[in-house]
Amino acid sequence: MKQSKLLIPTLKQDPAGAEALSHKMLVRAGFVRQVSAGMYAYLPLAYRVLENIKKVVREELAKTDAAEMLMPAVIPAQLWKDSGRYDTYGPELFKFKNRHDTDFILGPTHEETFTDLIKNNIKSYKKLPLILYQIQPKYRDEDRPRYGLLRSREFIMLDAYSFSENNDDLDKVYKQMESAFQKIFDRIGLNYRTIIGDAGSMGGSDSKEFSAPAAVGEDTIVYSDDSDYAANLEMATNMFVDQKGHADLKDLELVDTPDVTNINQVSKFFDIEKNQIIKSLLYIVDDKPVMILIRGDQKINPTKVKNYFNADSVELASPSEVQDSLNVKPGSVGPIKVPDDIPVYADQYVKGISNAVTGANENGKHYKNVNYDRDYQVKDFGDFHLVKEGDISPDGSGVLKFTKGIEIGHIFKLGTRYSKTLGADILDKNGRSIPVVMGSYGIGISRLLSAVSEQQADQNGLVWPKEIAPYDVHIIPTNVENDEQLEMTTAIEKELESKGLSVLVDDRKERAGVKFADSDLIGIPIRVTIGKKADEGIVEVKIRKTGETIETKQDDLNNTIDILSKEI
Questions:
Q1: φ, ψ at 409 (rounded to 5°)
Q2: What DSSP letter does each residue of 166-200 carry, written as one string?
Q3: How would you label 270-291 residue by residue, b for 16+ Cβ within 10 Å and e otherwise?
Q4: Residue 198: its pLDDT value, please?
Q5: Is cis: bond before 330, omega within 30 of 0?
Q6: CATH 3.10.20.30 correct for 46-207+408-454
Q7: Among 288, 339, 348, 555, which one is most buried in terms of CB atoms within 10 A?
Q8: Dihedral angle computed from the Cα positions of residues 102, 105, 109 and 113, in that order, rounded to the nearest 10 degrees
């Protein structure tokens, strides 16, 4: 392919407003251009990379017997109303009406649509298990799209769905898909971790995320420094160490604490460590007030609270909601004398605090020497806290470390969350009507462009792994008006293409320095430069990833490229 015939609008400077390395380089190298906030055009080079990624995905999913198909991006809103997600998904859902005033959405994911398809077409267990998938644009109205393709409003996604008769069959498919995803990411050339994930608005039970460590990542990966344990921050746990105090219980005492409303002030006022304080926070869980207690040096993890209650929504109560529920300001909330209609739950570490300090449920007052069971009761204890670096790993091996990561894939055991709600039933072996057991599996195809770029780009530009590079070889004649160079260029291009390699030829009338800079920006794995030694039959070969260059005879070029390709 002649470079002069492609649209590759390279830039010398970073685009204004770009923060992430991947965003800067994908724009500078002429791969993408923003059409509107969070929506991008994929120019010819990016499109080729996307197609190569899709090829890898299709090859690995074919080994699981998954079948590709395509659903419309426009979905009847009624399906989402029936599943309950129309109102709970959030403001990211694109909603609109057609000319007949019928509600529709732009699909952010397609669980409901596929479930409805199965409901209307599969009636017997004999047709299961079944795996269907599509590769399609998805839409989420992000409040603040940023980092280029990492957080956008329109993106390309693989979404796959499995349908099984029972949980055992789901487990088998789930493991198959986990293995397939790992092979996909291995082939694409990513450094990634498979971690415990949060099902979030998807529902269901187990889920795993695939996260690519990167400084710009918006997810926090928690991992053990001495084992395979890894989870996102929202789902991470640590080994619970029972630190129940053995101090003599002191008499409960009410203390005036004017202008003492936060943990730092309480710690200073009473001259105690924060782990001797019990924070009492009021949450609104599915429209009902619930009090959660946590140790003063820890933070509540709202995701754990949401999962504990299997709730659709969990929000920290506003000051007015606290006042209405407890007749007190937030800085004085405590677990003593809580109204009967507000249940109290506590993090597991709270139980071990002896002679604690808490709010008194009276403005400007705190209790000291507060002890569980004697002075307050809770309905249940649970794991409600955010883990911290240095905590003991839950498997007892090593301590927890944090790193940033980009979520590139996610798999879910949905169970019967959607099939029960939408009525997707089959007849089992005994002729009974049962709901189909489902799984959901997704990869951010367009996001992989950014993930690979974040991990492998350097100060000179992009560095593409050979499996997904837009072209295998970049040929650069330094002087396109030199007949000998042009003849050699044409001969090498034909020879390499006959071997099944894709070739980009820089036939532009530009200075050699401009061509080399653009070549580094574009990031094709191997560059062949045809210059002054063309009359001697010698070319220069450069490996983009390492910067290593070697000279070779034209007759030996095929072998040289074969050898180098095995090393990159």
A1: -160, 160
A2: SHHHHHHHHHHHHHHHHHHHHHHT---EEEE---G
A3: bebeebbbbbbbbbbbeeebbb
A4: 74
A5: no
A6: no
A7: 348
A8: 10
Q: Kindly tell me the burial class for residue 117, based on how many C-beta atoms sit within 10 Å of its own C-beta (0-12, 13-18, 19 or more).
A: middle
Backbone region of residue 352 per phi and psi (left: phi > 0; alpha: psi in -120 to 50; beta: other values): alpha
Q: Which residue is listed with tokens 């090593």?
A: 398
Predicted model pTM: 0.88
Q: What ranges do the domains of the chain cover?
A: 46-207+408-454, 253-382, 473-565
Class of domain 473-565: alpha beta
| pLDDT tens profile 318-362 | 999 999 999 999 999 999 999 999 999 999 999 999 999 999 999
- For the cut 80, the answer to whether the pLDDT of residue 154 exceeds it is yes
Least confident of 162-166, 244-248, 407-411, 472-476: 244-248
Query: What confidence score (pLDDT) does residue 202 get?
Result: 46
Helix, strand, coil distribution of the chain in percent, nearest 5:
30, 30, 40
Q: Which two tokens stand for residue 341?
A: 């209609």
Tokens of 538: 């010698």
Which residues, 6+ apart, have CB-to-CB distance to 510 below 8 Å? none
Q: How does the average pLDDT of the chain come out, rounded?
A: 94
pLDDT at 24 over 90: yes
**Is residue 410 within 8 Å of 197, Cβ to Cβ?**
yes
- Could you give the strand order of the β-sheet that contains 473-477, starting from the edge strand earlier in sequence? 503-505, 473-477, 526-530, 538-543, 549-553
